Amino acid sequence: MQPFATSTPINNDASRRPLNLITRYFSPLNRSLYRHSAQNSAGIQQLLNAEQDASKIVQKAREYRTKRVREARDEAKQEIADYKAKKEEEYKKFEAEHSKGNEQAEAEANQEAEKQIKSIQEAGKKGQAQVIKNLLSAVFDVNPVPPTKS
What we know:
- This protein is an all-alpha fold and 150 residues long.
- The protein has one domain.
- The protein contains two helices and no strands.
- The longest helix has 114 residues.
- Pfam families: V-ATPase_G.
């Protein structure tokens, strides 16, 4: 079928003229479009390759960051454990130095308490006979007093 066909076919140059004009103007355009589409597909392929490379770089960066975060966490745990051990050692040393003074003070307090207990027991032994005598006389020597009516 011819473009711009009329009801009666005409076979002269004038009838082909619109077809020649169309092909003259659009044929080079079609060729350049094909050429550009080939160049565009190469450009698109290049962009896709660049995108893949970029995604690989981003993936490596994420993996590195994850690895570094794990390492930092492990380093922090180790530093905390070292610091804790150091402070516990300092505390034990401090406690040992100051507990000796407390032990001495405790021993002196115990000796003083023993002295006071012995002096109280000796005082009780000296007055024990008199205390027993007073208690027995209060119980057995009763002076009955008749009640008075008021």
